[in-house]
Amino acid sequence: MSRPPNYEFQEWWNKQRAKDHADDHFSSSNSDDTKFLTVNIQSPDSAGAAAAAAAAGKDRSRSARQLSWIYLLKLNRIAHSLAFVTNGFITLIRTANRRIATSSDRPRSDSKFYKIIKFFLILSVCLLFFELVAYFRGWHFSPPTLEAGVEDSVEYIYAKWLEIRANYLAPLLQCLANVCIVLFLIQSVDRFGLVLGCFYIKIRGLKPVAEMEYQQDSEYESMNPDDFPMVLVQIPMCNEREVYQQSIAAACVQDWPRERMLIQILDDSDDADVQFLIRAEVQKWQQRGVHIIYRHRLIRTGYKAGNLRSAMSCDYVKDYEFVAIFDADFQPAPDFLKSTIPYFKGKEDLALVQTRWAFVNKEENLLTRLQNINLAFHFEVEQQVNGWFINFFGFNGTAGVWRIKALEDCGGWLDRTTVEDMDIAVRAHLCGWKFIYLNDVKCLCELPESYEAYKKQQHRWHSGPMQLFRLCFVDILHSKVNLAKKANLIFLFFLLRKLILPFYSFTLFCIILPLTMFLPEAQLPFWVVCYIPGIVSILNILPCPQSFPFIVPYLLFENTMSVTKFNAMISGLFQLGSSYEWIVTKKLGRSSEADLAAIVENESSALLEGGVPKSSSESGLAELNKLEITKKSGRKKGNRLYRKELGLSFILLTASVRSLLSAQGIHFYFLLFQGITFLVVGLDLIGEQVS
């Protein structure tokens, strides 16, 4: 018996089919928007293949979008980089034009050294023009020959030039280059030996040992007064408007019995306002119970040496056993005397205890970073090695303690050179006195932040040693010290490190190397241009490892400074006028003002509680206000052009163009980057920028 038809199910089925047909039509027109409404039932194999195909398609579409975004980001970065470079180039051109315009208003007299550089520049430009003509005529590939009847032609002139440079000029240049290479290698060996000595000291843990040690923050009443010898503290200064307060405050808060210490402020300022401010600062500390006096010379002869000699002639100096000397920008720690005086006990032949400099502004700009590399090597390696092995080094002029008997024994301060500190150290060494260097005791100070101040400082530091060598050479030969010490003074201390170093550095890399591009018959090996300077730069930067990213700028900048050092060395050796120029290094007062202010504030509060009148602190505030007014009314200084550096930059860039014609790769890059460095320095774009 057949089942009766189910009309209700048939009606529901027809509606579902109609609905599905409508959904299919809708999904065909909007398939991308309604895929999530569709359920596809397939076998496991077919489902996996379909899923893999869908994922592959999705990955392809996604990777395409990602690539497009990556390319857009790269294009954006390239655009930003081009904009940055363009903006920097435009700023450089504007700065150069502004400084050229301002420098043209300053009358200058051409020095002989600058005239020589200008002659070489004109010669290099003429030779480059001549070589370019020969290159485009193909004479570099097939040199012309000397033939009769063509004496008036350009080809004959070029052939004659080839003969002259090959037979006469190139041999002389090659001979000079070989001499400089030998000097370069000798100086590099000396530098390597100093580094090995420093490593030996570090590995063995060698340090000077004091026979006694002071207890920090101890009560002076319970201690023997003989344990605290009489100490004289001298602070020579001259127009030190920015830093006088810091140095005076640092000396006045020394952790030393006040009745056993006297502070001399030796003011050579010729500015009446600065004199008034320094005198007021001294009076303020006198009211606080500090033994401090102010001295001002009416006849200011002898610069710093004359100032110190005048102070040592006072009658009360005979009551003191030691003298600590600090320049105006130096801030000794409160325990400085407690850290240095103990080394004199039991060492009657010890004349000097020298401490290390630490710089508060070493990261201020690129110039201060490069200076920090040089001075870190000087103190960490040179001073420490010489102090440990031979008990002699050059006194740094500040942050040291002298035995007054040793100063008197070697003749006291003399103003015959601009390096009075090195002068008295050499004379004390010849008299048999010994020195100690303390690498762990540091004294805060300030580096010159402008290239002008740094250049004047380096000129004085490199002309003075040659003056001194010329004056004391005979005294060294006739002294009673042994032959080894005489040889060390003459050959290492003076000749190698003070004369040969600036001579070969300037001659080899600023004169000979460019000339070898125009006289290719004379050659400099690539290891002289690249490998040896790189190794020496690495050795110099080892005591300051955080400065390794600046190794290339350091190498290029040291070659740039060789111009100033060579000029100063020649001036001092041959008694030229500029060798006796003594200019105070400009300071900006960037020392640790906050720390000193806290020290002074604590000291003031303690003294005020003891009954010191409050008016002293109020007068100090008044003097600070006057100082700010005087600062604002001071004459503003700006950046300038340096013609020697600019002239050498064009010589090196001209030689780099000539090296392209000979396809000398390493020489081209060295000349190019060295020329750019000279250009940057010549435009005064390194160091402090005054707008």
TrEMBL record:
<feature type="domain" description="Glycosyltransferase 2-like">
    <location>
        <begin position="323"/>
        <end position="517"/>
    </location>
</feature>
<dbReference type="GO" id="GO:0016757">
    <property type="term" value="F:glycosyltransferase activity"/>
</dbReference>
<comment type="similarity">
    <text>Belongs to the glycosyltransferase 2 family. Plant cellulose synthase-like C subfamily.</text>
</comment>
<keyword id="KW-0472">Membrane</keyword>
<keyword id="KW-0808">Transferase</keyword>
<feature type="transmembrane region" description="Helical">
    <location>
        <begin position="168"/>
        <end position="186"/>
    </location>
</feature>
<dbReference type="Pfam" id="PF13632">
    <property type="entry name" value="Glyco_trans_2_3"/>
</dbReference>
<keyword id="KW-0333">Golgi apparatus</keyword>
<dbReference type="InterPro" id="IPR029044">
    <property type="entry name" value="Nucleotide-diphossugar_trans"/>
</dbReference>
<feature type="transmembrane region" description="Helical">
    <location>
        <begin position="489"/>
        <end position="518"/>
    </location>
</feature>
<keyword id="KW-0812">Transmembrane</keyword>
<feature type="transmembrane region" description="Helical">
    <location>
        <begin position="116"/>
        <end position="136"/>
    </location>
</feature>
<keyword id="KW-0328">Glycosyltransferase</keyword>
<keyword id="KW-0961">Cell wall biogenesis/degradation</keyword>
<dbReference type="GO" id="GO:0000139">
    <property type="term" value="C:Golgi membrane"/>
</dbReference>
<dbReference type="GO" id="GO:0071555">
    <property type="term" value="P:cell wall organization"/>
</dbReference>
<protein>
    <submittedName>
        <fullName>Xyloglucan glycosyltransferase 6</fullName>
    </submittedName>
</protein>
<dbReference type="GO" id="GO:0048868">
    <property type="term" value="P:pollen tube development"/>
</dbReference>
<feature type="transmembrane region" description="Helical">
    <location>
        <begin position="666"/>
        <end position="686"/>
    </location>
</feature>
<dbReference type="GO" id="GO:0099402">
    <property type="term" value="P:plant organ development"/>
</dbReference>
<dbReference type="InterPro" id="IPR001173">
    <property type="entry name" value="Glyco_trans_2-like"/>
</dbReference>
<keyword id="KW-1133">Transmembrane helix</keyword>
